[in-house]
Amino acid sequence: MSEPTYEELKARLAQLEKEKGGKRSGALDFRVGEKGGVSVYGLGRFPVTLYYEQWVRLLDVSKDLREFLEENKSAGKLKLKE
Description:
The protein is 41% helix and 13% strand. It is of the alpha+beta class. The mean pLDDT is 86.
């Protein structure tokens, strides 16, 4: 079996991205790592990884976090949706 050509590889990559919705579909993806950490992909360049207990603590204060973010919106850098 011969090696695929550059064009064949490029076409296959385009097909896979189309099936999955593209690299930057905006969807979040969750995965559990080998050490038990839960990672969220799709927020930025790197995944956000926390352990179960940390996610639960963060979710427990989500209302407070949202209020804090709104109060400090002017001090932070905002990334506008395109």
